[in-house]
Description:
Blueprint (H helix, E strand, L loop, with lengths): L2 E5 L6 H9 L17 E7 L2 E7 L9 H17 L2 E7 L6 H13 L3 E6 L7 H8 L7 E2 L8 H21 L22 E6 L6 H9 L18 E6 L2 E7 L13 H15 L2 E7 L6 H12 L3 E7 L7 H15 L8 E3 L8 H15 L5 H14 L12 E8 L4 E6 L7 H14 L8 E6 L2
Parallel strand pairs: 1-3, 1-4, 4-5, 5-6, 7-9, 7-10, 10-11, 11-12, 14-15
Antiparallel strand pairs: 2-3, 8-9, 13-14
The structure holds guanosine-5'-diphosphate (2 copies).
Amino acid sequence: MFTLAIVGRPNVGKSTLFNRLVGRRLALVDDQPGVTRDLREGEAKLADLRFTVIDTAGLEDVTDDSLQGRMRRLTERAVDMADVCLFVVDARTGITPTDEVFADILRRRAPRVILAANKAEGAAGESGVLEAYGLGLGEPLRISAEHGEGMSDLMSVLRPVSEEFEERARRDAPATDLTVEDGEVTDHAPDKPLQIAIVGRPNAGKSTLINKFLGEDRLLTGPEAGITRDSISVTMDWDGRPVRLFDTAGMRKKAKVQDKLEKLSVSDGLRAVRFAEVVVVLLDSAIPFEQQDLRIADLAEREGRAVVVAVNKWDLEEDRQARLVGLKESFERLLPQLAGAPLVTVSAKTGRGLDRLQAAVMKAHDVWNRRVTTAKLNMWLSGMVEAHPPPAPAGRRIKLRYMTQVKTRPPGFVVMCSAPDKLSDSYKRYLVNGLRADFDMPGTPIRLTFRSQA
Ligand code: GDP
Ligand code: GDP
C-alpha cells in the first residue's frame, strides 16, 4: 500500500478531501483556517483503491516567520513520509504566493506530485485551474472535495501508482541481480536523481536505449511491439550526476490486443511525462513523427517539461545528410510548439550519439531551471522594443513597461504592459523567440504572460 500526503496552504480544502477519502470524520473541518492540528493519518478508500492518506492541515494563516517555518517543516515531514503528494490549490482563489512556496518545497523534495485544483465545481474555478498550470507541476486535476467531483480522475492517476507498489510488494527482493528499480521512489533531495522519461511509440527502441545506457542487457527487448515487460525505471550515474530513466513500457503488458497498443502507450506516456523533468521523445527514423509521437511531444510541451527529440536507428540510414535535412523540416512543420527543442540522431543499438543525447538532456534540464535576472531582462526588453516597436492599434502604441521572471521549471516571465489584450500573437512570438535565442534556452517551453499596467 502506498502513502499519499495531502499538502497545500491553509483553507484550500485539504481536510475536506481527507474526510472524503477516509470516509469518517477523523479530521475537523471549519471555515476558520487551521483548526486541525498537526499531521493526521487515515486509511483511504477510493472505489477499489486502498492507501494511507496523511493530512497536513493544522496551520494557521502564514503571516509571520515562525509559522512559515512550521508550515515548511510540517510539509517536509509529510512529503518525506509519502510516496506521492497531492498538492491542493484553491481554484476559486487562484494561485497565491504561498502556493508558490509549497510548489517549491514539492519540486525540490517530493518524488511524485499530483496537482489538484479544488473547489472547481461549477464554472467559478475555471481561471484558477488555468493559473495552476503555471506551477509547472503538470496538468491540474479539477476536483471538488466538498461535492465529490473529480474523484474518478484522481483514481485514474493513483491507480498506476497503486499497481506499482503492489507489484513491488509482491516481488519483494527478487533473487536476480537486477538493479532495475521498479517504481522505486523513496530517495529525496539533495541528490534526488534527475527524472527523465523516454517516450515513443512501441518499437522505437526505448528499451534498447536504456539497456545501452546501463551497459548490460537488463531489460528485455525484442522485435515485437508490446512485448511483456515490467520495468518502470532505472537509476544510474551520468558523470557523477544521478539520473533516473523511466521506460514507458510498464503498462504495455496489459495490452493483449494489438490494436489497443496505441492508446495504452499514449496514456502510459502521459504518466511518464507527469513524473519527468526532461522528456526524451524517441522516434524511429524510418517512421518519424507519427500521430502518436506528435501527441506525446505536444503533451510534454503543454505540461511544461524540458524536451529533447532523439531520432533512433540512425545506423540504418544511408543518406544521412539528406535525411537530417528532411527530419528538421518535418520537425519545424509538425511541432512548431517545440521549436526550441534539440534534435539528436542516435543509434541505441550501436551506442552512437548517446553522449550527445546525454549532453542535450543535461543542457535542457539546466535551461529548464534557469533564472535570468530582472536587470538583464529589462535591458533586453528595451533592446527588443527599440529594434521592433510593438504595434499601435488605433494610433496608441502599446507600452511594454517592465519584465521579470516569475518561475522556473519551465522558465516563466511576466511583462507588464499597457494593453496586453491588443498585443498580437506575432509580437508575442517575436519576444519568446528572442528570449530563447538571446539567453540560449533550447529544449524548454517558455511561458510568457502579459499583465495590464496602464
Ligand atoms: P484545509 O484547512 O486546507 O484542510 O481546508 P478545509 O478542508 O478546512 O476547507 C476549507 C474551507 O473550504 C471549508 O469551508 C470547506 O467547506 C471549503 N471547501 C472544501 N472543499 C471545497 C469544495 O470542493 N468546494 C467549495 N466550494 N468549498 C470547499
Ligand atoms: P521499445 O518498444 O521502444 O522499447 O523498442 P525496443 O527497444 O524493444 O526495440 C525494438 C526493436 O528495434 C528491437 O528489435 C531492437 O533491436 C531494434 N532497435 C532498437 N534500437 C535500434 C537501433 O538503434 N538500430 C537498429 N538497427 N535497431 C534498433
